[in-house]
Automatic annotation (TrEMBL):
Sorted UniProt keywords: 4Fe-4S, Iron, Iron-sulfur, Lyase, Metal-binding
Family of the protein in this entry: Belongs to the class-I fumarase family.
Pfam families from the UniProt entry: Fumerase (PF05681)
Protein name: Fumarate hydratase
Lineage: Bacteria, Pseudomonadati, Pseudomonadota, Alphaproteobacteria, Rhodobacterales
Keyword flag 4Fe-4S: yes
Length: 320
């Protein structure tokens, strides 16, 4: 049985880590971009951000003034048991979010869409978002917090099978150019692409591809992995760099996730994380152990399964 007090305490630590400590995979990617960037303003921005990240960690202050919109992803092993059940779990995550808003501190970014009601704690109707995943076996839960910018850096288009790969490339480039020219995202970014599903699941796939995969990770489908490499290079060839200035470092990495869709369509979403890629992860075991990491390890073979039943014992053992 996993205690609610431990869940809330761990969630509080994660909120602090996500706001202050940039994940090492993204930091490595950013440093790599800074080494090859030759645009004057883009180079200046990249160096300033690297210095800012270092100062944030040393001073234990948020790495960006806009701390985004905190959200939670919860992955549960099938044998996990939580004190008080899922309702108690969600209450603990909401308390941790509210406490961190005042404690880290985070900027209170959540308001009612019509009345602009602001509780000054990033908690409200549907906030923070909590999404779930499950794995065969295991008496653990993974808590993943992502503090993603909540305004722009996202687009969707209904494509059709006849559009093919070239149509996917056109929309991808259209989105990146719009993000850069109109100031709709903070580059360089991890770009997530969702292909297929219905409109809502397509958007979810793209956001998870941006936020829940690490720099350098590749889709297990070799053809999709080739597209990820190609799209990273393509995104850095349009003449834009950091924050939309002239340069060649707009995309730190590109991750693609797919879902089966209607035979007549090919939905596509494009999501930019941001140059403060705020995420933190912890696995809580039933014996009270807590293991912190920065790789969400969300897209396991089980999450990408195609069959009706789960039929791969080797993957079952790995997930457990």
């Amino acid at each position: 049985m996993i205690s609610i007090d431990l869940i809330e305490k761990t969630a509080g630590v994660l909120m602090d880590k996500a706001a202050i400590e940039i994940p090492q995979d993204y930091l490595d990617g950013l440093e790599g971009a800074a080494e090859v960037e030759d645009g004057d303003l883009s180079s200046f921005v990249l160096q300033a951000m690297l210095e800012n990240y270092k100062a944030a960690k040393e001073d234990r202050r948020a790495m960006c003034g806009d701390t985004g919109c905190p959200r939670w992803y919860v992955k549960m092993g099938n044998d996990a048991r939580i004190e008080g059940g899922p309702v108690a779990l969600e209450a603990a995550l909401r308390r941790a979010t509210a406490d961190a808003t005042n404690g880290v501190p985070l900027r209170p970014n959540r308001v009612h869409p019509l009345w602009r009601t602001d509780h000054n704690n990033n908690v409200g109707i549907g906030a923070p978002e909590i999404e779930y995943g499950f794995e065969p076996g295991g008496e653990w839960i993974d808590l993943i917090t992502v503090h993603k910018g909540g305004l722009f850096g996202t687009d969707y288009r209904m494509l059709f099978p006849s559009d093919g790969i070239e149509g996917i490339k056109r929309f991808y480039l259209d989105s990146l150019v719009a993000f850069g020219k109109r100031g709709l995202a903070c580059q360089p970014a991890i770009i997530g692409i969702g292909l297929g599903g219905s409109k809502d699941t397509c958007m979810v796939l793209g956001k998870r591809a941006a936020c829940l995969r690490t720099v350098g990770d590749r889709n297990p489908d070799p053809k999709i992995a080739e597209l990820e490499d190609e799209f990273k290079e393509l995104g850095n060839s349009i003449g834009m760099g950091a924050m939309g200035f002239v340069g060649k470092s707009m995309v730190i990495d590109c991750n693609i996730e797919v879902g089966y869709c209607h035979t007549g369509g090919m939905q596509m979403s494009v999501h930019a994380f941001c140059l403060s890629s705020r995420r933190a992860v912890a696995r809580i075991h039933s014996d009270g152990r807590v293991e912190y990491r920065t790789d969400p390890e969300w897209f396991t073979p089980y999450q990408r399964r195609e069959t009706v039943e789960w039929e791969t014992p080797q993957c079952h053992e790995k997930s457990a």
